[in-house]
Fold:
Amino acid sequence: MDIDSIKKFLEKIGEPKYRLMQIIKAVYKDRILNFDEITTIPKNLRDALFKSFKILPFDEEKIFNTRITPLQKGMRPIKSLLRLADGNKIETVILPNENGWTACISTQAGCALGCKFCATGKMGFKRNLTSEEIADQILYWRGLLQVVGDMSTCRLRVNSQHCEKEACLRGQVRCGITNIVYMGMGEPFLNWENTKKSLKNLTDKNMFAFGSRSISISTAGIPDGIINFAKNFPQMNLAVSLHAANDKKRSELMPINKKHNLNDLKNAILEYFKLTN
Structure:
């Protein structure tokens, strides 16, 4: 949700300042994804917001089970293809874990790095995602998953029949997003400002309220990005996509290695450990 634009809109039409927090609570805490369902604000305001804004900055084009071997008994990761307002498309995935789901989110439409093993790299770079387009992939999944052991509220099972999680049938699981990995489409550190803002939103107690330790960022190896990440978010987790232990092979697989070789990457990681330990 584009909070900055909604804030300006509310100020322009003379609404009291507390209206914004009412809307934020309804969306991020109560998981209401339609303005006309927010009953804590006046109907005329609901109508005005509904006409002028969308809570989610994309539309669901397709949702499907992956063909990966089940990670748990009868359970596979679930992928969704999302269509952005300008027609570009991104993918987001949830993977089952013991306590709920791990969400894998994208930071760019396409990618400029061209890694040989990556389907996204073959697309080329389209554009950076906004901070809302990044963080709201979590809002999207939250809107689909049940809240607390109530199977009737879970659209993944009731409408789409994608979820086979046995614990849901017994009402024994809080089936929500417990972990987030920035391992979808794009290189997070090449969209740093929007990635940084999305991380702040995900850990904001008035919004998503995730703990820092539950969030990981994966990089193909951008030294400045690794150091900036350590300085800004020392409690979050870093993953590095290595794929080869010598420069010749790694450069064949990952062209970014020609610009930032393994020695550059090693030095950045050593600095990362100094800043985070």
The first strand starts at residue 58 and ends at 65.
